[in-house]
Amino acid sequence: MEGIKEVVVIEPLNSLVFEGKAIPGKRVNSKLFGGFCECGGIMYQKAKFKKDKFGILVSECEKCWRNQALVLSVDGELVSKVDVKVIDRSSISDFIRNILSSSEYKALISKASGGKYSYPVFSKAKRKLENMGINVNDLLGFFR
Ligand SMILES: [Zn+2]
């Protein structure tokens, strides 16, 4: 976990992408303090993830909406602070488009909207995403 500069959080899927793998997380629903932002604002905890023996706590600043991840050891000690790139509903299609080839992306869109698509191409897309830990059925709902 050391030397990691940035992680990606896919908000609609509530997962964190780390070294090319998506890790499912737990949303923090209560307003819990998550540290101070560089802008001086207060950060609130947003989601928690687990990777091997590390915990990853993602917080968001209430003032500038910056997201930050704290990597914690089992004892809750801070190992490192990492920047977070947030993928929300408006940017999820671009994110997926960069993972898939254009024909795979087209097949995914067609499948989501109930159109015609090439089954072998779609299953290739599906395999690619599922190897990353992204559930395709969860994803399809965002492309309808
Ligand atoms: Zn801030």
Protein topology:
Layout: E1 6-10, E2 15-18, E3 21-24, E4 26-27, E5 33-36, E6 42-51, E7 54-61, E8 67-72, E9 78-87, H1 92-99, H2 102-112, H3 119-131, H4 136-140
Parallel strand pairs: 1-9
Antiparallel strand pairs: 1-2, 2-3, 4-6, 5-6, 6-7, 7-8, 8-9
Bound molecules: zinc ion (ZN).
Residues 37, 39, 41, 61, 63-64, 66 line the site of zinc ion (ZN).
Tell me about this structure.
- This protein has helices spanning 92-99, 102-112, 119-131, 136-140; strands at 6-10, 15-18, 21-24, 26-27, 33-36, 42-51, 54-61, 67-72, 78-87.
- It has 2 domains: 6-87, no CATH class; 92-143, no CATH class.
- The mean pLDDT is 93.
- With 144 residues, it is α+β, with helices and mostly antiparallel strands.
- The longest helix has 13 residues, at 119-131.
- α2 crosses α3 (119-131).
- The relative contact order is 0.17.
- A hairpin with a 2-residue loop joins β2 and β3.
- Strands 1, 2, 3, 4, 5, 6, 7, 8 and 9 form a 9-stranded mixed sheet that branches.
- It is elongated, with a radius of gyration of 17 Å.
- Zinc ion is lined by residues 37, 39, 41, 61, 63-64, 66.
